[in-house]
Design goal:
The protein contains 13 helices and 19 strands. The chain has 420 residues and is of the alpha/beta class. The strands form five sheets. An eight-stranded mixed beta sheet has the order 12-11-8-13-16-17-18-19, sandwiched between helices. The longest helix has 17 residues, at 400-416. It binds cytidine-5'-triphosphate. Cytidine-5'-triphosphate is lined by residues 265, 284, 286, 288, 290, 316, 318-320, 338-341.
């Protein structure tokens, strides 16, 4: 039986109209994965390639992937004023890859093809994912064009470093398609918010630590790293320099952020100590193991006598509490945030546990979520924000990108306060 419209699963971008502009670069083939990622999440995608990009990927590919007709010129569909309508109706325009030439034309306000015309018409967010050779990316002309576009509110995803088209490696590589799609989701979730974290360095820990038991075994937890990476993406979208300390997570790190990979609670603590002096805000979203075993040099063997194995675990350092205790008045990190994933028990409900934790840890902001229903790995979350006294100062529910922006609103507000 065919699925009725109401039983068709709804994606997080259901009905959102996204124009995907494609420029003439070898990375154009990666835009195919971006288009697929957007349509799979329910977006209504219109691909607008530049004429010369069709040398790399043709219209048949774009029409098949987007399920929509493809136009490049302002002289097609003239009767329906397509060169204006597309841009007016879009909820976002994403250009992937954005070449140096396209970036220059966008800065100039050219309107000599359907893509640049759409850029001039739209009032929706514009996202550029540049890809080019390092020399072109670093050229003062490109740097200046990017600065001007950013000052106009255009979102530019910093290219990644790595293998380029030829034998060379360097900055200029297109970030992974999944990271570009997720960046777009975060921009859409940010709504009308401005680049209010520009000039701030935000350090975020995410994922679950892994404590080594022996060369083949680890003790870890269910953290997917999705909430912490959504926060990192959100802070980058809002203009911050972001360092993500990622513990053992398999989640794709966001585009544009610096990533420090760690394994154990002790590694995470060292990374935090290294970074805390340069962080304006530090958010502890990682699920840090409270206990660690003594690591055996060799693989622990099965007991012949079936006596079982007793592990002796010692407590790890409370990194969040240490951060708060070390900070002298007026010092960095100016804003320290933590999380409290709680369940209720027969004596106390989850919120009461969180309030107590907020007071005990003394962080400027604590985000509480009730994990009685087990939210691990989910794409949605429900957070209640508590201050250092355990008082509720806000709440948010929605996608992990949406709740991240709500949390970052509090961070931005705290950063403007004087901690002296
Ligand atoms: N945290 C930390 N260092 C640890 C354990 C946790 O910095 N060794 C941080 C987490 O990153 C989170 C906050 O403290 O921001 C609360 O973590 P949680 O596991 O909920 O609390 P615990 O302090 O471990 O207390 P308990 O497990 O007893 O509830």
């Amino acid at each position: 039986m065919p699925a009725s419209p109401s039983s068709v699963p709804r994606g997080p971008l259901d009905g959102i109209r996204v124009i995907v502009g494609v420029c003439a670069g070898i990375a154009a083939y990666k835009a195919a994965h971006v288009v697929r990622g957007l349509t799979e999440r329910g977006a209504d995608v219109r691909v607008v390639p530049t004429q010369s990009s069709l040398e790399f990927v043709g219209t048949a590919t774009w029409e098949a992937l987007s399920h929509n007709p493809v136009r490049t010129s302002v002289f097609e569909d003239v009767d329906s004023v397509a060169h204006v309508r597309l841009g007016q109706e879009a909820d976002a325009i994403l250009v992937v890859p954005a070449t140096a030439d396209f970036i220059a034309r966008a800065r100039m306000g050219s309107a000599d093809d359907l893509l640049t015309a759409s850029l001039l018409v739209t009032r929706a967010p514009v996202i550029l994912a540049p890809a080019m050779h390092t020399e072109m990316w670093e050229h003062p002309a490109t740097r200046e064009n990017i600065d001007v576009l950013r000052s106009r509110g255009v979102h530019v995803i910093e290219p990644a470093s790595g293998r380029l088209t030829g034998r060379d490696t360097g900055v200029g590589r297109l970030p992974e398609p999944e990271a570009i799609v997720q960046f777009t989701q975060s921009v859409l979730a940010s709504g009308e918010r401005a680049r209010d974290l520009e000039g701030s360095h935000v350090v975020i820990t995410a994922g679950g630590t892994r404590e080594e038991l022996d060369p083949v075994r680890v003790l870890t937890n269910h953290s997917s790293g999705k909430q912490g990476t959504a926060l990192a993406r959100g802070a980058y979208v809002r203009g911050a320099r972001v360092t993500l300390v990622l513990a053992g997570a398999s989640v794709e790190p966001p585009a544009g952020v610096e990533v420090v990979r760690v394994e154990s609670a002790a590694d995470l603590s060292s990374a935090v100590r290294r970074l805390e002096g340069e962080a304006d805000a530090l958010i502890m979203a990682a699920a840090v193991s409270d206990f660690t075993p003594e690591t055996s040099e060799s693989k622990i063997k099965k007991r012949e006598d079936e006596s079982g194995l007793t592990l002796h675990l010692t407590e790890t350092e409370d990194i969040l509490r240490g951060l708060v205790e070390r900070r002298a008045p007026g010092q960095r990190p100016r804003v320290i945030c933590g999380f409290a994933a709680e369940t209720g028990d027969e004596h106390t409900n989850a919120l009461a546990h969180a309030k107590r934790k907020a007071q005990a840890k003394g962080a400027d902001l604590l985000a509480f979520n009730d994990v009685s229903e087990n939210a691990f790995g989910s794409d949605r979350n429900e957070l209640t924000f508590l201050d250092a006294h355990g008082e509720i100062i806000g709440a948010a529910s929605g996608s992990k990108d949406e709740v991240s922006h709500a949390m970052l609103d509090h961070v931005a507000e705290l950063l403007t306060r004087d901690h002296g």
